[in-house]
């Protein structure tokens, strides 16, 4: 075995990555906070939301985070974004400056601080919790156009390992890469993580349009104008422009906005067909990250004075201030502009 790896989170993405890392020759432990989930996965060796994937017998499941982290050379955070801080806080006391830490969750955390609202990427959330525990560590973000359902079946996939510390980014690249999982590096971790969070918002918009019965023309418009919104925001925040035309920008938005594997796309389609936001999320049955990220992305656009019409109109739609048909009219009837 190359190293012991702890994967925190037993959802679809965590399990797809755990299997990949095990097949790459590592000793893999998967932590879930839910003992009943640990018991089911340990016994049945399948995941209900990953049809066709068999969990290798060598992967160990546990709800004991100390046992999971003890001796691990790499820790992968694969919990939903809303649980990243609490999980990092629980894990921080058992980590040190040397262990590799990789965040595979996509999202933004909003919070009030000293009278104003700020927004943190998932790597910053983890690093903050580590610092509170006296650990000085730099987190690597793993992001890109990657459906867990396809990674779990060894389908060709490309992803990005992003970090300001390129030595760490390259280490993650080498640990994850294999013949069906190609990993690129990028030093623009802000741009990569912003893409990972905001593309889920735009995929909701694409799903709503599809649910309303609109076709490929509308999809192409939302994707291309959406990536322009995202580029404007990222550049205003200090990210690198090239990131938004790469795998984590255009690539991730295409796959999230067009595939039925996408929870955000499915949720949007249900909203477009007339369901309320709560009904649509409940019907999807898993975390819909775009709903969680939407308020933060819209607030960032206002903070940096960036025009993001798709995002703003989606914010009004999901808050029941306008209907789907009104949202379309507001987008199509805006003042004429040059591209």
Number of strands: 10
Low-confidence stretches: none
Question: Order of strands across the biggest sheet?
Answer: 3-2-1-4-5-8-9-10
- Overall pLDDT: 94
% residues in beta strands:
5-15%
Report Rg.
20 Å
Alpha-beta content class: alpha/beta
Task: Give the helix tally.
Answer: 15
Shape: globular
| Order of secondary-structure elements | EHEHEHEHEEEHEHEHEHHHHHHHH
Report the helical percentage: 40-55%
N→C terminal distance: 53 Å
Largest sheet: 8 strands, mixed
Describe the structure.
The protein is built from 15 helices and 10 strands. The relative contact order is 0.11. The strands form 2 sheets. The chain has an 8-stranded mixed sheet with strand order 3-2-1-4-5-8-9-10, with helices on both faces. A two-stranded antiparallel ribbon has the order 6-7. The model has no long low-confidence stretch (mean pLDDT 94). The radius of gyration is 20 Å and the shape is globular. Helix 8 (189-211) packs parallel to helix 11 (263-272). Helices cover 50% and strands 14% of the residues. The protein has 339 residues and is α/β, with parallel strands linked by helices. It has helices spanning 12-23, 35-44, 65-69, 84-91, 122-132, 148-151, 166-176, 189-211, 216-237, 247-258, 263-272, 277-284, 289-303, 309-318, 324-332; strands spanning 4-8, 27-31, 60-62, 74-77, 100-103, 108-113, 116-121, 140-143, 157-162, 181-186.
């Amino acid at each position: 075995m190359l190293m012991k790896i702890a994967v925190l989170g037993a959802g679809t993405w965590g399990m797809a990555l755990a299997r990949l890392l095990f097949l790459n020759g590592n000793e893999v432990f998967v932590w879930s906070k839910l003992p009943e989930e640990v018991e089911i996965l340990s016994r049945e060796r399948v995941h209900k939301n990953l049809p066709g994937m068999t969990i290798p017998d060598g992967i160990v499941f546990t709800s004991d985070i100390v046992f999971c982290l003890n001796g691990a050379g790499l820790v992968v955070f694969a919990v939903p974004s809303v649980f990243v801080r609490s999980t990092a806080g629980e894990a921080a006391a058992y980590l040190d400056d040397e262990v590799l830490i990789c965040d595979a969750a996509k999202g933004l955390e909003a919070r009030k601080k000293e009278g104003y609202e700020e927004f943190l990427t998932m790597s910053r959330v983890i690093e903050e919790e580590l610092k509170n525990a006296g650990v000085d560590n730099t987190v690597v973000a793993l992001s890109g156009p990657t459906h867990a359902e396809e990674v779990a079946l060894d389908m060709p996939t490309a992803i990005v390992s992003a970090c300001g510390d390129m030595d760490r980014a390259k280490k993650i690249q080498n640990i994850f890469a294999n013949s069906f999982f190609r990993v690129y590096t990028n030093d623009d971790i802000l741009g990569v993580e912003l893409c990972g969070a905001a593309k889920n918002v735009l995929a909701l918009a694409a799903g709503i349009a599809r649910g309303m019965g609109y076709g490929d023309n509308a999809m192409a418009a939302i994707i291309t104008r959406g990536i322009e919104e995202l580029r404007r925001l990222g550049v205003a925040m200090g990210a690198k422009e090239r990131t938004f035309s790469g795998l984590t920008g255009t690539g991730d938005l295409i796959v999230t906005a067009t595939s039925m594997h996408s929870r955000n796309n499915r949720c949007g389609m249900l909203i477009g067909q007339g369901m309320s936001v709560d009904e649509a999320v409940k019907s999807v049955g898993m975390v819909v990250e775009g709903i969680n990220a939407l308020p933060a992305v819209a607030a960032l656009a206002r903070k940096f004075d960036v025009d993001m019409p798709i995002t703003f109109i989606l914010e009004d739609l999901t808050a029941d201030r306008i209907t789907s048909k009104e949202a379309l009219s507001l987008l199509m009837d805006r003042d004429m502009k040059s591209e």
